[in-house]
Amino acid sequence: MPDVIGAVDGCIVASKEHPLHYKTRKKDYAVVLQSVCDLELRFTDCFAGYPASVGDRCIFRNSELFLDAERNVNALFPNGEYIIADKAYPVLSWCIPPYIDNSHLTRAQKRFNSILSQSRQVVERSFALLKGRFRRLKHLDIKRINLIPSFILTCCVLHNIFLDGLEEYQAKQDNIDDFIGEGLQVVRQQVRENDDDNVGFQKGEAKRAHIMAFLVRND
């Protein structure tokens, strides 16, 4: 996909016990980490601390990434770049999710969704690598809620530092694959919202249609 600079998604980080609104549909207590990652699995933006009962779309729209982009989109995406997301996220000029399958998608739209899905697998691998390396994130035993976001974000910073450091060693890919394999064993729980978003919707739709046409022409 042209001009993609990252993929965004939310990741559940289980915690031991907290107020009711931190409870997931599977009766676990958890907070959400929203992250954007690049092709090298590095996190380029992280936002943590919302309860697991809050949907991804709501978390996204309250994140600094969204607020900064809405204030001055050219500061973050000066040349028309964008990030890709799953269907829980709104379609904007700088955030492109797939077309929602209503059983009436065109062949081009289905092809677009397939390419986008393959492209955004990188964020799943980033989360798997994070949890595979920092196993405490699988079940975070911290009673003070105010410390949890800082702990999660610290792990994200260290995640990037380790990736930079591993470039010095030949065994980099083997180490990453081992951690990703372990991290993928964690069952991810997601809360999704699919309602339409009117903010920048028309620009986002036009941008998505343009990308789809480009992909079809070059397929």
UniProtKB/TrEMBL annotation:
GO cellular component, one term: nucleus
Main subcellular location of this protein, as a coarse class: nucleus
Protein name per the record: Nuclease harbi1
Protein localization: Nucleus
The protein's required cofactors: a divalent metal cation
InterPro entries for the chain: HARBI1-like (IPR045249), HARBI1_dom (IPR027806)
Similarity-based family: Belongs to the HARBI1 family.
Pfam families hit by this protein: DDE_Tnp_4
Residue span, DDE Tnp4 domain: 17-160
Keywords of this entry: Hydrolase, Metal-binding, Nuclease, Nucleus
Any one GO molecular function term: metal ion binding
